[in-house]
User: Fold WD-40 repeat-containing protein MSI4-like protein from Dimocarpus longan.
Amino acid sequence: MKERGKSMERSVDERYSQWKSLVPVLYDWLANHNLVWPSLSCRWGPQLEQATYKNRQRLYLSEQTDGSVPNTLVIANCEVVKPRVAAAEHISQFNEEARSPFVKKYKTIIHPGEVNRIRELPQNSKIVATHTDSPDVLIWDVEAQPNRHAVLGAAESRPDLILTGHKENAEFALAMCPTEPFVLSGGKDKSVILWSIQDYMSTVASESGSKSSGSGGANTKHLSKGGGTGDKSTENPSIGPRGIFQGHGNTVEDVQFCPSSAQEFCSVGDDSCLILWDARVGSAPTVKVDKAHTADIHCVDWNSHDVNLILTGSADNTIRMFDRRNLSSSGVGSPVHTFEAHSASVLCVQWCPDKSSVFGSSAEDGLLNVWDHEKIGKKQTSVGSKTSNYPPGLFFRHAGHRDKVVDFHWNASDPWTIVSVSDDCESTGGGGTLQIWRMIDLIYRPEEEVLAELDKFKSHILSCEKKSE
Assistant:
């Protein structure tokens, strides 16, 4: 086993060395940031400022510690360099053990327990939900929360709102609705639970004798009602669920809202099931695919451009794409396509906000793959006599992490920009790696457009050569 472990280490190191040598060719921009403690989740927050060469944006991370200091929710400021600004030779010259000048810690919240999952409210991304090893979902108004110094013995920050309802721990399955201030969670109690933050805002408004100021994200602007300090004299505000949905036979691992409806959502779990729900018709599944994969399903995402397409990622190392029009309540439903390029459990899948057919997947093999399902079935481009041996649909492989890539997030404000995190405990004995990156646009732009640009570049070089003669 030791020999096998050493050979795996060598192959990872070789892969990483090869990747680093290709960074100037494959990437428009890349920032590498060493983390003292691993972060199990990473999410983009609101964009703060736009400048000539870069934008400033919030970034949400966590610190999963060994207990010598508290676990934290971290709010960072990130400088995102704009396309075609960074010099190719500079982006590959980074020290793996150093922190990036592009990422600066802005605020620390001392979190009650480790942060397993972070999700931001799309209508107001200053409102964040977190999952820890407990039955509760914690809601934070990150701008209103005070900055804390994370030292041993420091009192925990108080969440602005607690969502109750799970009977057992809910650790990973968490989603925020794109259209309403709704929160969705799944847990070890095999339940999917729906809440509305609006219910809390309405209660506060009625208690204070003021009228509710309408629905939607606007009411979440002033969520904080004295939370944030370590003072336990006042109880944390909490609300119960709007609905509890039963149908899974094991732990629910991930949940996702339908992008066009706050009442429709889906869930996946350790029972290998994909379930679709509609809160308008009751608490039973509307569609249940019993064997969506051959092992536990870790992640799910719903396409915001085409609401018929749903992605799932599993411990069977594959990603599957389902068309909900092909699914039936009898549990019969085969995927439109199965994507195979990972050699270990898939941990995260997410559709790209910039192109409807593109998505990313990350796994325990340390890779983050980028796919385009529209490329499946099309003739593979060949170089000379060699044909491409890449799996169908795969068009980019990010190999900058040397351990399991536990989370990633496409940036909705900066097209084709991704933040990804790896938990490096197994490879380096501790810490993690945060990378912010954008592949070079020649990779994803239409082929005719790219060839035309390269042809202009070729003409420019030839004219320069003639002038120098």
Remarks:
- The radius of gyration is 23 Å.
- The chain is about 15% helix and 35% strand.
